[in-house]
Amino acid sequence: MKRLIGWGLGLLLISGALFFGRQDLHAFLTQRPDFAALHTEPVIMYGTSWCQFCKQARTFLDSQGIAYYEYDIEASVEGQQQYTVLNGRGTPVFLIGNQVIRGYNPAAILAALTEDESIPAVTGAD
């Protein structure tokens, strides 16, 4: 009987992974804290002082008039902890709403800001 229950649960997890997609199932099973709710800024950036892509990201966000909060993951214990929970690999990492963007990708940043209806509309500087 235990073996049958084990097989049933395994089959349920596999079919759930196929139906929802692996990332959605992983997100459901490993819900992370809502770090975005800790800040009023719509974008949270995890970076370092020496990272060239972080520097480009700061310039981009400033030029677009996008408010952001930045954690230097080498200087901030809280920032390092959040970065780790978000499975940060490399810098910069962005958190916009509940969406994680890894690497400097202006199009993805703007798309995430547009998709999240809880974030005020972004009007980029011309």
Summarize the topology.
Layout: H1 2-20, H2 22-29, E1 43-47, H3 52-64, E2 68-72, H4 77-85, E3 93-96, E4 99-102, H5 106-115
Parallel strand pairs: 1-2
Antiparallel strand pairs: 1-3, 3-4
What does this structure look like?
Helix content is 47%, strand content 14%. The chain has 126 residues and is of the alpha+beta class. Helix 3 (52-64) links the parallel strand 1 (43-47) and strand 2 (68-72). It is elongated and about 60 Å long. The N and C termini lie far apart (67 Å).
Total number of strands: 4
- CATH superfamily descriptor of the largest domain: Glutaredoxin
The outline comes out as: elongated
| Percentage of residues in DSSP E strands | 5-15%
CATH architecture of the largest domain: 3-Layer(aba) Sandwich
**Total number of helical segments?**
5
Distance between the termini: 67 Å
Largest sheet: 4 strands, mixed
How many domains make up the coordinates? 2
Portion in helices? 40-55%
